[in-house]
């Protein structure tokens, strides 16, 4: 490892501690509140999120909707990849903020439209981020990895350690899945979409409040992409460094 990679490795060890620590009392309290919130949200909203999640997962595994070219050469240094990701993340955060402000200003109907639109922005970012760190996003197995990165970013604090281990022990995790995408229905997308809903429900409900929608929508979407960017970068950094270590 060079000096920069050693610095990043230390950062990743601190990140591992953060990802694997036990849920706090606050996490446990908010989980109870979130359950009550879910019960009060109109079924139409739940249906939109569920349908959007299922479509996104299918498109991720078997579609060409998010396919992108590798934007960084395979032999590029980690620092170069990190700089490229920072540049692209800034673009996606602005895009998400504009989209959130626009749909937030339009009331409930446009607010509902924000769910699939924001999902699309997040997945396009993840595919581009994966390509920056050298993953072949046309590979079915790498697409499953991308879904696991997404799951970790929006995981329930009580499930975060498990989600984290699925990512860092990827060579073992991938054996749990079939060799081809034909068995897509075997994937447990229900848990993934429920965790995602729990993560975004409260703030996105505020987005539908008249007078607050545009401000909340822009702020929420910007920070959702910021959080996703941090998790994605660390996951892909981990892959790069671990694979380099195995080859050396």
Automatic annotation (TrEMBL):
It comes from the Bacteria. Pfam families: EcsC. This is ABC transporter-associated protein EcsC. It comes from Fictibacillus arsenicus.
């Amino acid at each position: 490892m060079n000096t920069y990679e050693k610095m990043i490795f230390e950062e990743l060890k601190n990140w591992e501690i953060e990802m694997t620590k036990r849920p706090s009392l606050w996490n446990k309290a908010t989980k109870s509140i979130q359950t009550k919130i879910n019960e009060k949200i109109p079924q139409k909203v739940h249906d939109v999120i569920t349908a959007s999640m299922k479509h996104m997962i299918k498109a991720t595994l078997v579609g060409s909707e998010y396919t992108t070219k590798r934007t960084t050469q395979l032999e590029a240094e980690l620092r170069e990849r990190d700089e490229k990701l920072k540049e692209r993340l800034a673009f996606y955060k602005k895009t998400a903020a504009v989209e959130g402000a626009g749909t937030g200003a339009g009331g409930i109907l446009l607010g509902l439209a924000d769910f699939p639109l924001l999902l699309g922005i997040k997945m396009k970012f993840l595919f581009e981020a994966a390509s920056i760190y050298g993953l072949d996003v046309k590979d079915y197995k790498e697409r499953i990895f991308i879904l696991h990165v997404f799951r970790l970013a929006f995981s329930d604090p009580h499930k975060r350690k498990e989600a984290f281990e699925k990512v860092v022990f990827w060579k073992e995790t991938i054996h749990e899945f079939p060799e081809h995408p034909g068995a897509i229905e075997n994937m447990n997308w229900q848990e993934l979409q429920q965790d995602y809903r729990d993560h975004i429900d409260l703030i996105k409900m505020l987005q539908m409040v008249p007078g607050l929608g545009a401000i909340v929508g822009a702020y929420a979407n910007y920070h959702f992409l910021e959080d996703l960017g941090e998790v994605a970068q660390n996951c892909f950094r981990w892959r790069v460094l671990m694979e380099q270590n195995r080859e050396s």
